[in-house]
Amino acid sequence: MDLLSIMAVKSSRPSKVVFLFLVLFLFAVLSGCIGEDSKVKAAAEAVPVKVIKISEQVFQVRGEYVAQVQAMKTVEIRARVQGHLKERLFEEGQVVEKGQLLFIIDRRPYEEVLKRAEAELASSRATLSKAEKDYIRFKALFDQGAVSREEYDSKITDKRVYEANVSNAKAEVEQANLDLGFTKIYSPMKGLIGRTQVNLGSLIAKESTVLVTVSSIDPVYVNFSIPEKEYLFAVKEIEARKKKGMAEKHTQLQIILADGQLYNYNGTLNMADRAVDSSTGTLGLRAEFPNPDKMLRDGQYAKVVALLKVYDHALVVPSRAVLDVQGRKSLLTVAANGTVVEKAVQIDYSSDHNTVIGKGLSAGDLVIADGVNRIRPGILVDPEIVEPVKPVSSVPEQ
């Protein structure tokens, strides 16, 4: 083998090594690119979703009901005698005291009637006095046999008739006094007086004409109706707390006024109706509220807010996150590897906005709240944790 052949053989060995190195390098680069493409493809397939991280919280179940204020006592003031209205002795729309003089009806006709009744009584008494003397005299004569039995019985009859006449005259005087007294009309209670319904000088009919109305002002009743389902919910909570020896947190009631503001004083339940209204499925309730500022008026409309139940360690999700398939309730959650897992749950309470989960969910779980109808269990998702929705409350913030 000559020198050139030897050099050619020696030079071919490094070329094969270099070629082999280049092949391995290209394979490694291509493998890396394929891996990166797989990751990019997988990331592209992950569906972006917004999730809520579940945590325990205090949750209050409140009911809001249309209500109407009612005065505890309302009295229509009517005249008890007929006559012309002479005086009005109060300011309309003000508080009047019990026994305060309100109206005076023309007293002169009734004073004349009283005078005639008193004169008739005096005449009857004089006649009776003479009859009593005749009776005593004839009794003595009858005992002596000087007069007949018939004459004696006549004097007894006269005496009894005149006694009856005196009794009738006394009754007439008493009635005349009453009628005269009724010409002055007093307030039967302390309360807020309304607008006068008749003008001065008008002829007032006995009993039929309402002169004015007086209503008590503090405290007042507030009437409202609660659906039967919510009533049962509240009753069960009351019984449960009693068995545990816990205070009844929901006994206090609140009012939202027509301007949307919360009334300054809380009320308490006063009574419940005897039966549920079968036409509406509601139970009538009555609450009692203090009214020292006279802000609540008879007939006024408002909204009653009742605290029905308090969950001290509630797991709350938006109601829109709950799936309901033939009565089976479930939630879509996101596992640690990013896949969607459907969890069957038991609901303790649900409203249009919030749902309290009793079983099937744990603190720390990620729950898909929006677009649940477009998500299927097992798919890969890219979760974005958002702030949980605050429980909706009927009570405006102060």
UniProtKB/TrEMBL annotation:
<protein>
    <submittedName>
        <fullName>Efflux transporter, RND family, MFP subunit</fullName>
    </submittedName>
</protein>
<dbReference type="Pfam" id="PF25967">
    <property type="entry name" value="RND-MFP_C"/>
</dbReference>
<dbReference type="Pfam" id="PF25917">
    <property type="entry name" value="BSH_RND"/>
</dbReference>
<dbReference type="GO" id="GO:0005886">
    <property type="term" value="C:plasma membrane"/>
</dbReference>
<dbReference type="Pfam" id="PF25876">
    <property type="entry name" value="HH_MFP_RND"/>
</dbReference>
<dbReference type="GO" id="GO:0030313">
    <property type="term" value="C:cell envelope"/>
</dbReference>
<dbReference type="GO" id="GO:0046677">
    <property type="term" value="P:response to antibiotic"/>
</dbReference>
<feature type="domain" description="Multidrug resistance protein MdtA-like alpha-helical hairpin">
    <location>
        <begin position="114"/>
        <end position="183"/>
    </location>
</feature>
<dbReference type="InterPro" id="IPR058627">
    <property type="entry name" value="MdtA-like_C"/>
</dbReference>
<dbReference type="GO" id="GO:0022857">
    <property type="term" value="F:transmembrane transporter activity"/>
</dbReference>
<feature type="domain" description="Multidrug resistance protein MdtA-like beta-barrel">
    <location>
        <begin position="219"/>
        <end position="304"/>
    </location>
</feature>
<feature type="domain" description="Multidrug resistance protein MdtA-like barrel-sandwich hybrid">
    <location>
        <begin position="74"/>
        <end position="209"/>
    </location>
</feature>
<feature type="domain" description="Multidrug resistance protein MdtA-like C-terminal permuted SH3">
    <location>
        <begin position="314"/>
        <end position="374"/>
    </location>
</feature>
<dbReference type="InterPro" id="IPR058626">
    <property type="entry name" value="MdtA-like_b-barrel"/>
</dbReference>
<dbReference type="InterPro" id="IPR058625">
    <property type="entry name" value="MdtA-like_BSH"/>
</dbReference>
<comment type="similarity">
    <text>Belongs to the membrane fusion protein (MFP) (TC 8.A.1) family.</text>
</comment>
<dbReference type="InterPro" id="IPR058624">
    <property type="entry name" value="MdtA-like_HH"/>
</dbReference>
<dbReference type="InterPro" id="IPR006143">
    <property type="entry name" value="RND_pump_MFP"/>
</dbReference>
<dbReference type="Pfam" id="PF25944">
    <property type="entry name" value="Beta-barrel_RND"/>
</dbReference>
